[in-house]
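F.,

This is the one I mentioned.
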């Protein structure tokens, strides 16, 4: 009588199968991660495009670009109650956030916090860490870019995180006129600034499609401003709201004179740990070296232009031409190449 015999897997065969499966997973994981990051990059670009289009509409209505900081008079008309804001609240009415603007102008507060201040997910890049403050704290050197001797043991809370930085051009001068209309789109419009500079599309000789509205910066902190920004024109607001560029314009020879960068573009090893130095509930220790284009995307950042277009800008710090191209995107009418 014949019997059919059954033969199972041997241990060696089982280990070989497991090894093959593990190898396939190892080969696939980078591709899966890359696909996920590409999706996050697309979502980031979509966020930026909506903000850029809101800026385009603002410029069409107001015939000027928003300030990177500005003073908004409330409904009561009392100057002392006016709210000093960054660039985002100025766009509320143009990015489908009319309710937030209504709350802002009405001066509504709940438990001492202005109601218009919210954590908006459309102003943060999906590639940025979810635990924003802790991530920066862990990656930054202890006390780096901090508050002098103040080095808190735990990371501060980033209540209103911001990933997108507007074009602030050159670092503002200490005295008026603080800005130069040739070198940026967003200027200081706070009430405390005596000589305000504004830019309209008519001033953009280099072309709307070539002039940057905003880009990404992982070191921004929050879209709200330090408390001192409402009364002190010297408060460093640009690093909180935008990006700046380094270099001196040589009028005689129509060229830029380069300077060494403390923190290169897209540098992820020199991050700053945002701190609340004055214990007033607002991050206020950000400085100019970190006001540069940077992201957690691979090899570059998203950039939005004055015509509403968004593109990915590849960064190669080893190529000196990269910074020259980046700087030229800031200047609306400087005769850059």
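My design for it:
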């Amino acid at each position: 009588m014949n019997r059919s015999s059954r033969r199972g897997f041997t241990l060696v065969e089982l280990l070989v199968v497991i090894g093959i499966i593990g190898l396939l997973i190892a080969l696939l994981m980078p591709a899966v991660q890359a696909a996920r990051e590409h999706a996050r990059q697309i979502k980031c670009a979509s966020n930026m495009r909506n903000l850029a289009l809101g800026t385009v509409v603002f410029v069409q209505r107001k015939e000027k670009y928003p300030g990177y900081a500005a003073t908004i008079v409330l409904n009561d008309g009392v100057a002392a109650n006016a709210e000093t804001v960054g660039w985002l609240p100025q766009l509320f009415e143009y990015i489908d956030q009319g309710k937030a603007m209504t709350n802002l102008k009405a001066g509504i507060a709940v438990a001492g916090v202005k109601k218009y201040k919210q954590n908006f997910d459309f102003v943060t890049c999906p590639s940025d860490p979810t635990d924003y403050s802790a991530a920066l704290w862990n990656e930054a050197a202890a006390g780096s870019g901090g508050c002098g001797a103040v080095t808190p043991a735990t990371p501060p809370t980033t209540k209103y995180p911001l990933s997108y930085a507007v074009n602030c051009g050159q670092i503002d001068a200490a005295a008026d006129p603080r800005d130069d209309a040739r070198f940026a789109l967003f200027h200081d419009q706070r009430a405390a600034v005596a000589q305000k500079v504004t830019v309209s599309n008519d001033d953009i000789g280099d072309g709307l499609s070539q002039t940057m509205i905003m880009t990404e910066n992982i070191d921004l902190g929050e879209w709200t401003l330090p408390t001192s920004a409402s009364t002190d024109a010297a408060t460093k607001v640009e690093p909180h709201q935008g990006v700046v560029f380094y270099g001196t314009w040589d009028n005689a020879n129509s060229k830029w004179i380069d300077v060494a960068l403390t923190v290169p573009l897209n540098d992820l090893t020199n991050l700053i740990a945002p701190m609340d130095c004055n214990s007033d509930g607002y991050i206020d220790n950000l400085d100019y070296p970190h006001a540069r284009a940077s992201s957690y995307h691979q090899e570059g950042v998203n950039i939005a232009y004055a015509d509403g277009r968004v593109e990915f800008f590849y960064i190669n710090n080893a190529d000196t031409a990269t910074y020259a191209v980046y700087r030229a995107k800031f200047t609306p009418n400087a005769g850059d190449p």
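The mean pLDDT is 84.

Talk soon.
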